[in-house]
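We emphasize that the prediction below concerns an isolated chain of 264 residues; any contacts that depend on oligomerization or on bound cofactors are therefore not represented. The input was used exactly as deposited, without trimming of termini.
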Amino acid sequence: MDEPRDVGIDAETERQIAAKIAEEVVGRPPTVGVIGVSGTGKSSTINAMFKVGLEVSHVVACTKEFLNVDLAAPSSDPRLAGQQTVLRIVDAPGLGEDVRRDPEYLSMYEEALPAADVILWTMTARNRAVALDQQYLRHLAPFHDRMVFGINQIDLVEPRDWSEAANCPSRTQRQNIDIIVQDRAERIESIIGRKPVVVPYSATHLYGLQELFTAMVEAAPPRRSWIFSAIKKFDPFDFIPAQLRDRVAQDVGETGRRRMRWSR
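Result of the prediction step, given as a C-alpha cell string:
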C-alpha cells in the first residue's frame, strides 16, 4: 500500500485513506500461518515466540483444526493511530499424522493459507527424512513465495551437549547444525525452485526465535510489509530464558539493550 502524502490532503481524501488503512489492518490483520508435518513443534513454537497457551503433547497430535490466535499488537505508526491492531497467528493441524486425514488437512490448508501473509514451515533437526515435506510442498506450490522454513529442536542435535549456562549450542553442535541447515535448504530448493530462508531454533530453549521472527517479517509481501514493520516492537529480551535475563542485562547495560531493540 502506498504511503499517504502528508501535504495537500483534503478532508475527503484523508477519510478515504483512513478507511483503506482500516480495511488493510483491521479488516485483514497481518497473519502468520504455522504449518508442517506432525510432531515438529508448531504449537510449541507459537507458545514460545508469542507467550500463548496452546495445548502441547509429546505423544499425540493436539491440533485437529486451524486455530486463530489474535495477539494485541500496538503500533507507533501514525497511520495506525486509533486502530485496534492485532497480529494473527494460525496454528494448523500437522500433515502426515494419518494417511486417512491428509486429504482433509490439505484441503483445509488450501482454504486457509490464502489469508496468510507469511507461512512458517516447521521441521525438526533430528529427522533427516524430508520426503513428506517435499511431497506436501509440491502440493502447496501456490504458497511457496511466502514461506520461511524453521528447523526446531536443534538442542537435540548430536552430541547433545547444549550449553545450559550460555543457552546456546556447543561448538560441535553448531557445526552439525550448519550441515543440517545446508542439507535441508538444498532439498527444499529442489522443490520450490529458489533458495529458501531456513532458520535453526529451539522452542524449548527460546534460542533463535528472534532471528526466526525477523525472517518471517521480512517475508511479508511488499504491500503488507509496512504493517508488519509497524507492529514489530518485540523486545529481544523476550527471547531470552528468564534465568539468563538478569545476567544478560548486566552484561549489555541499558545502552546495549536499546541497541538490541527492534526499531526497523
